[in-house]
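Predict the holo structure. Ligand: S-adenosylmethionine.
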Amino acid sequence: MGYTLTRVAYAYDRLRAHPPEVAGQIATAMAGALQTRGEEAVFLELGVGTGRIALPLIARGYRYIALDHDPAMLEVFRQKAAGVMRKVQVLEADARKVPLPDESVHAVIAVHLWHLLPDWPKALAEALRVLKPGGVLLEGWDRVVSEEEWALQEKWRALVEEEGFPVERGLHQRRLKEVEEALRRLGLRPKARQVALWREERTPRESLEALQERLYSFTQRVPQEAHERAMARLWTWAEGTFGDLDRPFTVEKSFHLRVTRLG
Ligand code: SAM
């Protein structure tokens, strides 16, 4: 496995990790949505990444199919799950073509995935195909509120635009809405709620590093040279604006879960 890819996978992990109590609240909410009719529950996660959502459920003893198309993410996932892998099946596969039979799992989890797939209807169709009757689609997403973080990201965007590359933001929320509409058109009734709310500290340096590593999906389409030039200017701007890049600011975070039950 390439060192760089694995390093980026770990960096992604640090940025998005949930505090243990939050991870527990999310796992409880997801497990609470299951209806298994006496069978052993089987979860499938599309785009499992490094296992942020999966590991707390696996640790509770659930059978879990961890699917992702990125071997670097799966490598980190395998290392983290090493002690609890007994009931885990790792699938290196595309979420738009899931190598599982129809009606074979009780829950499909999709967290921060749809916006990465221009042809998301294919992945949604696959999720619904592999769910058993009475099974649940569990879609989740984080929200982050922080003036400082927003200021840094918007400055990066302005600098990249000066390089001639317009950047689209807000795709994630728009895509969630599109998926919800698609589910309603199928006669399903998705229900969303906030399942966790917490605060974290972050430094401007950490936010800059996350931008530099392109850990946010909105940064990923900009050509490398333009990104590097914008980043060089952004570090200078941040030093002028924040002074001490290691003085933390507060970030308010929440996690939201949308549950859609089949039949
Ligand atoms: N669900 C995890 C979480 O919330 O921590 C990971 C989210 S991460 C933003 C998205 C993951 O989806 C990445 O690991 C990426 O490799 C994976 N992914 C993107 N497109 C995919 C596809 N077409 N098939 C399978 N996995 C995909």
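The first strand starts at residue 42 and ends at 46. The radius of gyration is 19 Å.
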